Amino acid sequence: MTSAAPSITVPTSQGAARWPGAAESGRVRVELLVVASVALGAAGQLMLKASLLFLASHGAGMNVAGDPQLKAVAGILFGLCVYAIGTLFWIKAVSRASISYLYPLSAGSYALVAIGGHVLFSEMVHPWRWAGIAVTTVGVALMADRKSTRLNSSH
After folding, report:
1. Number of CB atoms found within 10 A of residue 140's CB
2. Could you give the angle at which helices 127-143 and 108-121 cross, rounded to 10 degrees?
3. Rounded to whole angstroms, how far apart are CA atoms 38 and 25?
4. Are 100 and 148 in contact (CB under 8 A)?
5. Burial of 154 (0-12, 13-18, 19+ CB in 10 A)
6. What is the dihedral of CA 14, 94, 3, 142, to 10 degrees?
7. How would DSSP label each residue in 31-89?
8. What are 44-74's pLDDT values in tens digits?
9. Which CA distances in Å does 154 have to 9, 94, 95, 150, 151?
10. Whole-model pTM?
11. How much of the chain is in helix, strand and coil states, percent to nearest 5?
């Protein structure tokens, strides 16, 4: 037996429109927008870190073709663009659902950035930090009350 996706009421200029997940009009579920936002935000942050590490390891004194400073700046700009695209997904999600429901979901970025830092940059993540990330993840799961996803146009 399948259950219908919860409705999200979105204020429009002609009153409130209902959005039952991805079933109507080919719209993307709000949770997928948040996942995209979190993933792109974390990827952007990791790109910034990689670019700055690249710059630090190649020094600032070389002025030849393929200048490391130019490559680092390009990486920083790319990282900022990826982060900005994630922000656009976040804006779209916030326009469709309650911020009090969505914001805890954004805490997933803590885990992604910590994992990325550990895997990509060999950063040491203390066990207490992993424990904190786990507690945050459990807290987010507890707060993920599907009934609170409705935007309330009466407030």
Report:
1. 17
2. 150
3. 24
4. yes
5. exposed
6. -150
7. HHHHHHHHHHHHHHHHHHHHHHHHHHHH-S---STT-HHHHHHHHHHHHHHHHHHHHHH
8. 999 999 999 998 887 655 554 568 888 899 9
9. 11, 17, 15, 11, 9
10. 0.72
11. 65, 5, 30
Name the residue with tokens 């004194």.
Answer: 61
Buried b (16+ CB within 10 A) or exposed e, 113-132: bbebbeeeeeeeeeeeeeee
Kindly state the DSSP code that residue 97 receives in the 8-state scheme: S
Structure tokens at 136: 């945050």
- pLDDT digit string, tens, across residues 10-27: 444 333 344 444 444 557
Best CA proximity match to 102, nearest among 135, 140, 134? 140
What lies within 8 Å, CB to CB, of 121 at 6+ separation is: 49, 50, 53
Report the run of H or E that residue 136 belongs to, with start and end: helix 127-143
